[in-house]
Design brief:
Order of helices and strands: HEHHEEEEHEEEHHHH
Structural class: alpha+beta
Oligomer: single chain
Radius of gyration: 18 Å
Strand content: 15-25%
Number of domains: 1
Number of helices: 8
Length: about 220
C-alpha cells in the first residue's frame, strides 16, 4: 500500500536494515489488532501460511476472516475487522492472536514500516502507532521472526515492484475493463490457486510472477 507522507512526520527519521536495534518491543495490549480498517493488506505468503496451517482454502478465509478491497488500483485481500471494537477476527477475548506463529507480514512488522527505493527497501520505525509507551529495544531480524528472512525480504521486494509495475501499466492504459480483468487474474493466480505442499513457496511464486510479466508484456 502506497503512503504519500513526510517521513519526518511518522518516523524517527532513520532507515534501518534487519541487523539494527529499534525500540519496538511489545507489551501485549492488543491495540494494534483493533481499528486497523483495511490497512492489513495480505500478500501471497500470508495467505499461503494461513491456508497451510489452518488447513483451509482462500474461499474459507473469505467467509469471515478476510475481505477484498482496492489497493492502489488493484483488488487485494486484507484482514477483516469485526464487532464493536473492530477487532481482527483472529484476536481472542484475552487479546491474544490465535495465529501468532504464522501471522501476516504486516503484523510481524508493526510498528515498523518499509521504505521502498531503487528496487529495494529499508525499515523505518513508526513513532506514533504503537500504544506501548515504554517499548524495549530489539533487533529487527529477531522481531520479525522470519525463518528465512533473506528469502522473505527478496520476495517482499519482488512482490512490491511487480504490483507497482502492474499498477503503472494499468494507469497508462486507462482501461477499467482491463483493470478488473488484471485484478481478478492476480487474485486467482497468486491467492486462490494453491501452491502444492511439496513445492517451495518462493520458487513457485517467482515462476508465477515471471509468467504474469510475460503475459502482460512487462519483460
Amino acid at each position: 500500500m502506497k503512503r504519500h507522507v513526510d517521513m519526518a512526520d511518522i518516523s524517527d527519521g532513520r532507515l534501518y536494515d534487519s541487523n539494527a536495534m529499534v525500540k519496538a518491543g511489545c507489551s501485549g495490549c492488543g491495540s494494534c489488532c483493533k481499528g486497523m480498517g483495511t490497512s492489513i493488506v495480505l500478500d501471497p505468503l500470508d495467505i499461503y501460511r494461513m491456508t497451510s496451517h489452518l488447513q483451509c482454502s482462500f474461499e474459507m478465509l473469505m467467509a469471515d476472516k478476510i475481505e477484498l478491497n482496492v489497493v492502489d488500483g488493484i483488488i487485494l485481500p486484507n484482514l477483516r475487522m469485526k464487532g464493536q471494537n473492530e477487532s481482527c477476527g483472529f484476536l481472542n477475548d484475552k487479546n491474544q492472536c490465535e495465529i501468532h506463529p504464522f501471522r501476516p507480514g504486516i503484523c510481524r512488522l508493526f510498528p515498523l514500516g518499509r521504505y521502498y527505493e531503487n528496487n529495494s527497501f529499508k525499515y523505518f520505525l513508526q513513532v506514533h502507532e504503537c500504544k506501548n509507551e515504554h517499548p524495549s529495544k530489539v533487533k529487527i531480524k529477531k522481531w520479525l521472526e522470519e525463518p528465512e528472512l533473506s528469502r522473505q525480504e527478496a520476495f517482499i521486494c519482488r512482490w512490491h515492484y511487480f504490483l507497482k509495475n502492474l499498477q503503472d501499466m494499468l494507469d497508462e492504459k486507462e482501461d477499467e475493463s482491463l483493470r478488473k480483468q488484471v485484478s481478478m487474474y492476480v487474485l486467482k493466480k497468486f491467492y486462490m490457486d494453491p501452491i502444492a505442499p511439496e513445492d517451495d513457496f518462493y520458487n513457485a511464486v517467482e515462476g508465477r510472477i515471471i509468467e504474469s510479466e510475460k503475459m502482460f508484456g512487462m519483460l
